[in-house]
Every structure is written in structure tokens, then in C-alpha cells.
Amino acid sequence: MQRLHLLALNPTDSVTEGFLPAAARLGLAVTLLTDRPAAHRRAYRGDPPPALEIVHCEVGDFREVIGRISAMGPPPDAVFSNSDHLQVQTALAADYFGLPGKDWRAALRAKNKAQLRRALAAAGQDAVRFAELPPDHDPQDILDTVPFPCVLKPREGVASEDVVLVEEPARFAGHCAAIRERRPGEALVAEEYLDGPLFTLETLGDGRTLHTLGSFRTRLSPPPYFTERRLDLLPRPQHPHADRILEQLRALGIGFGACHTEYTVHRGRARLIEVNYRAIGDHCDLTLAHALRLPLFELILRTHLGEPLPGQLGACSGGRVRIEYVCAERGGTLRTAPGPSDIRSDGVRLVYRPLRQTGERHPLYRTNRDYLGVIRATGTDQDRIDRAVRRFLASRRWEIE
Predict the structure, then answer these.
(1) Domains in the chain, CATH or no CATH each
(2) For labelling, which of 123, 197, 239, 358 has a CA lying 20 to 30 Å from the CA of 369?
(3) pLDDT digits (tens, 9 = 90+) for 84-125
């Protein structure tokens, strides 16, 4: 039996509902390396995946990952992670054991937003004005180089956490201080605000061919924050904008495994926002696989086992998708919320999954941690999908006290 070593931090739906079942279907034994083993044991207690071993490991340190895998016996057949934070470590471990994997340099360029901008500019692909603020520097030190309005963000952050639009220099130092209070010791990046509607490009490569799977149109919360509220799968990726983004991905060295890229279109020009060198999350990957009728998670794992991808994948489909997140608008205790449901009516399948349990108390994060639940609506007619989502939202209640 082939063995997959899967690196993870906290449990996610992508792993629990996507990659672990896919590994079981492929007949793989899975060793899950994590620094949070208790959380994973709780997550799988009710329905544990077959042939799963959970092992404690400081997965943020590639040296610990390599040492732990080496100590466990025969070399693995694949080393994989779907975590934004663990792509470099996973790539280095795969390379150490001579296994297929991502180029660690490309993974680093995607993760480090300052390196991303430098690499694209050096390749002549796109030049976005930005300033980097090291942890021990005063915001005033870089104020003259910050392009206003700017988007201030952690240099290696994810999921719009602590990402804020800063309109004027007088507010810059205050926003830097607020982020540093929550993230001591982290570097920040302030880059020019790229206007225009937001889109995603979902790709999958095997190191030889880079396939476009699909593209979403993303709706965000009002500025100054950037929480994703809704995504709609486009009938086909935009051209020539998708082609332009693919050029930039190749310039970054990205072409192995799954990649989720965000970009805007302004005045006919595609501008890359960020690259997440893993599959799209927050239930979008699960819904995309269903809409494309594609064994997406199996294909991703197969690339890490060294198997070539089929000749044609995704890119357009008769399926339509709307993903909507029910968000908390204030902090407090969730008192009333609907349970999970799976409704089929008028040619639409609408799946609702709660993401927060009643009785839980939370502050207002202004990130995807504010999600109370997610609606996944699929069908072939966008108007019917939209009506189904509106009916569902109008007939349910979410109350925060």
C-alpha cells in the first residue's frame, strides 16, 4: 500500500471532506503530520478515515518534518499539504526524499507577498508599487515610499486576515500598530490598491502541463476590509485576462499541483492580487469538483504521486455555482441559527453547512472567521440558483446576542 504523508495545521473541510476521502478511494495509507493532533482526533472521532495515522510534528519547521518522516520507517510515496502556511516546508521535504513536489522557491514567492512583487517585476510581467515594513522598523521609515491609497497586509498572511485599505498617510501608523498588536514580530507590506472587480483562476498542473479548471467572480465586503461574501463560477475563464495571469504564474515558477490565484480587471488590464499555491478553500473546492464532475482531490493527490494528468480538464462546464457566506455583522453569542440542510428543487441543489455552533461567542474579526455558515447552490440555470439562495436566506434566521 502506498503511503501519503499529509502536513496540516488545524482541521479544514478541504482535508476532512476532500483529500482524506480521496486518499481512501485511491487506496492510500495516510500519515497526518500536525502540531495540533488533538484537534484532528476530535474532528475525525465520529467517522475516522480508514488507514489514517495522526502523528505530532512541528510542521512549521521543515527540518522537523524531514526528521519525523525519516524516523517512521520506509520513505513515503508522497508528501503533500493544502495549507498556505506549509507549502515551502512540504516542497523541501518532498525534494529531500526525491518525490514529486512543488519548487520550494515558487512556493516561497507565492507565500511572501514582497517576494511575489519583486519576482513579477524582475520578470517584466507586472510592476505593482509596494513598500515592505520589517518587524523592527517604524512605519514612518517607509511612509515616503507607500503608495496611497494602499492595501496594508501581513507579508505572509492568508484569508484577508488583517488586510485593510488605508486611504491617507495620517492613518497608516495607527493601522500598522493595530496589526502588530495582533501579530507581533511579523513583517507587513503596503501595496498600491488595485481597483476593479475581483476574479479567481483555479489551475492544476503536473509539472509539464498547467490546466485551467475554472474561474470565479468574487464579491467582497465593503471597504476598508476584504472579506469574501459570494463567489459565482463563470461559464468559462475570461480571455485574454486568464491567459495573462497564466503567464505570470509561469514566470513565478508555478505549475505543479493546485493553485488558487486572485486578480482584478481594471481598464481592460488584469492585475494579480495574490497567489495561494494550494486548492481554493472555504467549500469552493468541494463545489467546483461537483460542478465540473471531476475527481479533483484524487487528481491533485495523483500529481504528488508522480502521475501525469489527463489531456483535458475543466475550463468550461454547463454547471453553474453560487457560493454565499452568511457573515456575522457584530460580535457576540450566536443564539439562533439553522442546522445543516440539503435541498433539491427546481433543478437546483442547495447545500447549507453551519460553520459556527449556537452558543459560541466571538468578536467581530472582519475576516472569514466571521462566517456563520456557507450556502453551496449548483445547477444549470443562474436565475434559478439565485432565486433558491434568496428563498433560503429569507426563510432562515441567524441571531447574535
Answers:
(1) 3-99 (3.40.50.20), 129-192 (3.30.1490.20), 198-400 (3.30.470.20)
(2) 197
(3) 999 999 999 999 999 999 999 999 999 999 999 999 999 999
